[in-house]
Amino acid sequence: MSLSYASYLHLDELLNLQQPRSTPPEHDEMIFIVTHQAYELWFKLQLHELDKIKDDFRANRPYGAIATFKRARTIMKVMVEQIDILETMTPMSFSSFRERLETASGFQSSQFREFEFVLGYKRADMLRYQQADAPSYQRLLHRLNEPSVIDCFYLFLEQHGVAIPAELKSRDCTLPTAPSEAVEEGILRLYKTQPALEILFELMTDFDEGFQEWRYRHIKLVERTIGNKKGTGGSLGVDFLKKSLFQPIFPDLWAIRHKL
User: Fold this and answer.
1) Is residue 73 a contact partner of residue 45, using CB atoms and an 8 Å limit?
2) How many degrees, rounded to 5, is the angle at CA 69 between CA 66 and CA 73?
């Protein structure tokens, strides 16, 4: 049998993955399933793109990083806009099938935790919410212990004459990113002397802003849907989510805004 559009994309399998649990069927359970499955695909693609960005930084390919950050930023915009779809679901329609979720929760998304870890927002305690015997747990553990985009960014900056402090170069990769005045001064110099890198830094800032926007929109979605209730599966709800608000991915890029 020759390759077709459907067989190449495995559409029979893909379109059979939506299995609502409510009986009788609740109309809005389908939109809930499809949008969350779509998010997992976007997370997969973002991880794919961020791994390339890490390679671009290591190999000092600024134009490769520029092109890929442009794509990652565009994907992020779609992820933000996708919340508009979920917000067409009212709190009452969500409540109509919420109990069918039982112990399942978006809080358990291992790919989203990978996404955070790759971007440098590492919290080892998040591993306890994952199933230790699952392959996804091992992938997340690997992400926790490998250099993040930020660590590779330091290598890139060093290749452009920025003196990276020794404590940053030898830092524990399992810890979250922290700002550095020395890095900020180096970035500021590059901003003013290398136009191509200015473009890269602005794209990185755009991506960072988009990620913060996604966090905010996601929190407001949860808040308008369940208020201050605990999330399904014992997840920590809105108050926990708010702790990650306004946590920049690239703090050094934001810290120099007043000096540009």
Assistant:
1) no
2) 140
How many domains are there within the chain? 1
Cα dist from 129 to 91, 153, 233, whole Å: 26, 29, 10
Say what the pTM is.
0.92
Residue 13 lies in a domain: no
Q: Are 28 and 94 in contact (CB under 8 A)?
A: yes
**What are the φ/ψ torsions at residue 100 (nearest 5 degrees)?**
-70, -15
Question: Comparing 68-72, 92-96, 117-121, 141-145, which segment has the lowest mean pLDDT?
Answer: 92-96
Residue 29: give its domain's CATH number.
Answer: 1.20.58.480
Q: Is residue 156 part of a domain?
A: yes
Give the model confidence (pLDDT) of 179-198 as tens digits: 999 999 999 999 999 999 99
Largest CA distance in the chain: 65
Contact 245, 215 (CB under 8 A): yes
CA distance 67 to 83: 26
Which tokens sit at 197? 């890198």
Q: Which residues 6+ apart lie within 8 Å of 193 measured at CB?
A: none
Domain of 227, in residue numbers:
23-99+148-259
For residue 64, give the nearest of 72, 55, 56 by alpha carbon.
Answer: 56
